Amino acid sequence: xxxxxxxxxxxxxxxxxxxxxxxxxxxxxxxxxxxxxxxxxxxxxxxxxxxxxxxxxxxxxxxxxxxxxxxxxxxxxxxxxxxxxxxxxxxxxxxxxxxxxxxxxxxxxxxxxxxxxxxxxxxxxxxxxxxxxxxxxxxxxxxxxxxxxxxxxxxxxxxxxxxxxxxxxxxxxxxxx
Length: 177
Prior knowledge:
This protein is α+β, with helices and mostly antiparallel strands. The protein has a single domain, classed as Gcn5-related N-acetyltransferase (GNAT) (Aminopeptidase, 3-Layer(aba) Sandwich). The protein has helices at 17-36, 38-48, 51-59, 101-115, 130-138, 169-173; strands at residues 7-11, 63-68, 71-81, 84-92, 120-126, 142-147, 156-162. The protein is globular and about 40 Å long.
């Protein structure tokens, strides 16, 4: 399915709150259930995918949504971390994965980091999330370390993408795949 050409990327507004939360509620069980278990999924949804957790990021202008046919089908959330820009969330509804939406969101996050003057974009994913690993490697991210999550949950794998003046242009110019 290739639908990316009909997708609108834009800053989230308060009206998008339920759509953004729904992306998390639909992606987390299928993404993390097999890797980290149902308890981890329940904890993550309760901690990171609520109105209280999401409203401040939307108000701060740190959430971008991918809209298709009037519905939120993907989103990102960014924020500063130790002098770099962290991509805290990049999620696309399961039925829209492999459609180019994730690539559009990633390129927008990279462009934002560069425009805001950051020297690199950092993020983490759970070890065992091979789809995420491959996606981030495709965009040039390299591993910088691992962090034990504890409780039988796989390690968080931290990766970075340097954003020097001459690096990243090929990624930003890619067509949606």
